[in-house]
Amino acid sequence: MKHPNRTLRAVATALILGLCAGQALAHGDVTPQAVDTTGLKNLGADWLAANPYRKNDTAKRIGDSAYNQNCARCHGLGGISGGIAPDLRFLPVLEEGDEIFMQRIRKGAVRDGKVYMPPFEGTLSQEAMWAIRTWLESIHED
Question: Exposure of 109 by Cβ count < 10 A (0-12 exposed, 13-18 middle, 19+ buried)?
């Protein structure tokens, strides 16, 4: 019979490793999901500097769905971070935050060779990105 402390340690280690592996896979090792932007005005090929869908109800609905499919696994349901990535409810609103948001979602973030956020340019359309931004502004907190 194994010593009880060894068994307890083995179980604790397995749980910790399993949780860490789950977090590692949950952050950055996922396939982006397509976003249906039907109902939104097509924005063309040139990237806009300001959100053209601000306060648009269709964009909010699409952005909510797109966020849950592509962002919530790292940034948390409802924009409330669970600690893996920043809490997006506190992003600056209006044009002040548009540039910050679009730079990060388009290009991602890499530090010391580690991907902290994958780039979504080429994966999500400009329409989908602005829809997510519209939804995030609708849940903004000061």
Answer: middle
